[in-house]
Amino acid sequence: xxxxxxxxxxxxxxxxxxxxxxxxxxxxxxxxxxxxxxxxxxxxxxxxxxxxxxxxxxxxxxxxxxxxxxxxxxxxxxxxxxxxxxxxxxxxxxxxxxxxxxxxxxxxxxxxxxxxxxxxxxxxx
Length: 125
What we know:
Layout: E1 11-16, H1 20-30, E2 33-38, E3 41-45, E4 52-57, E5 79-83, H2 86-96, E6 99-100, E7 109-113, E8 119-124
Parallel strand pairs: 1-4, 5-8
Antiparallel strand pairs: 2-3, 3-4, 6-7, 7-8
Protein name: VOC family protein
InterPro entries: Glyas_Bleomycin-R_OHBP_Dase (IPR029068), Glyoxalase_6 (IPR041581), VOC_core (IPR037523)
Domain VOC: 8-125
């Protein structure tokens, strides 16, 4: 793109007390392969060539609280994952190790937690 210096989103980075745990989880969930595996940094390659996911060690990581509560660790971001069949995708997510959130704000969306406690949403188009 002219005038932008060629900016392109490369990856979303999530902090975790153990970067390999959420990387392994999202690799199973999305069918993506680990590209980089270091003690404090793990990356997943997007097979379609789009932005990937990376996970970095955060020694002082605090799991966010959902739904949000005053004075507790707030959710800084979450992933929205588009699915073709919500029921099938939910079963797959749970088999991969996702934890279903007790609070579900919408009937057509399912909120889950990855192994580090990051929330993510599954929804149909």
